[in-house]
Amino acid sequence: MCGIVGYVGALPAVPILLDGLARLEYRGYDSAGLAVLGTDRIDVHKTVGRVRVLEELTPESPATLGIGHTRWATHGAPSDANAHPHLSADGRIAVVHNGIIDNSVALREWLQAEGVRLVSETDTEVIAHLIALAGGDTLEHSVLAALAQVEGTYGLAVIDTEQPDQIVVARNGSPLLLGVGEQEMHVASDAAALVRYTRQIVHLDDGELATVRADGFHTFTLDAQATRKTTVTVDWSLDEYERGAHEHFMIKEIHEQPEAVRGCLRGRLDTRFQTAHLGGLNIDAREAREVRRVKILGCGSAYYAGQFGAQLIEEVARIPADAEPASEFRYRNPVIERDTLYVAVSQSGETYDTLVAVQELKRKGARVIGLVNVVGSSIARECHGGIYLHAGPEVAVASTKALTTMMTAFSLLGLWLGRIRDLSAADGGRLVRGLQALPEQIATVLEGEEAIVDAAQWMAKAQNVFYVGRVRGYPVAREGAQKLKEISYLHAEAYQTSELKHGPLALISSDLPTVAVVPDDELLDRNLTALHEIAARSGPMLVVTHDGVDVDDLAQSVIRVPRSEAELDPLLFNIPLQLLAYHVAVVLGHDVDKPRNLAKSVTVE
Ligand code: F6R
User: N- or C-end of the chain: fewer Cβ atoms within 10 A?
Assistant: First the structure.
């Protein structure tokens, strides 16, 4: 949440900052701003609204050093005054910040008692004043002194008219990367803003700062000890961050799923021993046999992918498994067991709740592996090992291809754990072949998009939508409902099909459509009974099912997906529900890639 950029080099900073902000806009989009260092003064331009509004109002400038910010409001409503950068009272210091300063109320009171006039409602503004008042002999000393008074999380970039050749950055709980160029340096919350200029990236760690100049950088800790960093090369190319001919990133990413799943499977299927090859787990077979339980932690859609994973691992590997929102887990006092394998799942690798859950687990000596998309991200670096998703960059706020690769990676993990235990070679081979077939099968589902466009027309007229699924289908229903609420703003709720008659059936009427997940598996008869109960109460239905399942007389729309192995069916059932949410949002005219109130990469509590 919130995107930070910075540039110091020989080129005009404004176009580079604006380009970086546009690429980070998915992190927050209620206001945007930038500050460049002119001769002896800082010029700030900021506005409520999108980066394109900022672009219109920002004049050309010869300045070659600056910082920028795109905001997702936490303290203070979106407004010009609350937009970043924030200046110190004397205009000497400018600050952009991602994160939350927990003791900002006390710091504001203290600053006001010192006679400082605060001009915004943000927690960030205090940092600019604290740095200006710190009186250090260098900017980095002043930043260190100011941060000693600050409690909370931050990714921070600071410029100072008195040290016009540098940007000082700091990280604690909010991501921050340096991009190393030729006689120029970049700063960003995410590689998305960097790949146009450089693939050479340095990840800062929590509690680390850097002083960045055109010809290089040095890093140090909050207690001023120098640190050593290695530069890593990012694989993702600029093209992957472009929307191309697609109207939205979300639909582009939905259509990239066959390739994303191929990427996730590449080199990981072992057809000789009918298992998965997962070198990055850093767990050997003997250790894996000692695992008595699997606990999966993630947030939002990643949590629903985790529910799918738990179901599959329990079914295939016969290890008790469950998923819990990381955001809940970290606030209770969970029992941590020696022989439990903890799995953190996250697209961004920066979700704060998941990251803190991992850190808490590690502190208590647990073994945690990560299923993460962004290479080198905080969660990936915290975990003992893991499976990178290789989905490519996901830009749309609503997660689609990352979610599908999470499900793919869980299938690989389940297969591997199963084959170390009691899953036969024959069943292993069945799953290997099922996984190999998935990319083509997903492509087949995507070819059926027209039927979903039609269904979206009538679904968009609803106020509320029910999603039902049973056992393997339930996480699919939950994720389908999540996608619809996020981008169409319709109220959507998922239930286990089996639970309908225990309460929610009371709500069924001609006004309440139901989206039903109905694979042709051992539970088909029970699911069909529930569909009859809904139809008998005039509930309109969209049913996602397999060929040969006769529901045409019951449902307004029927979407058929190819058959996979029963354990893998949820991966295919999920795709039409993504398309449905997308097309309903398009019918309703919403900003699909930037849904209201949300932002990608939730790096605050
Ligand atoms: C849903 C969505 C969110 C994320 C959640 C976790 O479409 O995007 O629910 O899934 O915020 O994010 P990551 O996977 O980055 O940890």
Answer: C
